[in-house]
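Bumping with the actual sequence this time:
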Amino acid sequence: MTRVPAVNISETENNYHVELAAPGLKKEDFKLNLERNHLSISVEQRAEHEENQKNYSKREYSYSSFVRSFTLPESADDSKIDATYTDGILRIDIAKREEAKTLRRQIEIK
């Protein structure tokens, strides 16, 4: 059975935020690639366990992988992408371009 981690995507005034739930991994297991405006998150994890006892030999292999891809909006600044992995959550912050940030101002009533 293949499992793809759940993703939450949110937006603030200055950034886009991507949170991917992937417990049990290490930050070294992740590969983040940006090609044009496509951000890809991939994991390839392999494990081998061998057990030798008196009358038998047991060898187990484990392999898991996934890829999630996202198209960045034109307002994203692809030169300002930061990623952290803490407590099973991969967090990616993508800055918005200056011209895309929401301008706020008080409007005077006449």
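The tokens above came from a reply further down the thread. The domain at 7-100 is CATH 2.60.40.790 (Immunoglobulin-like).
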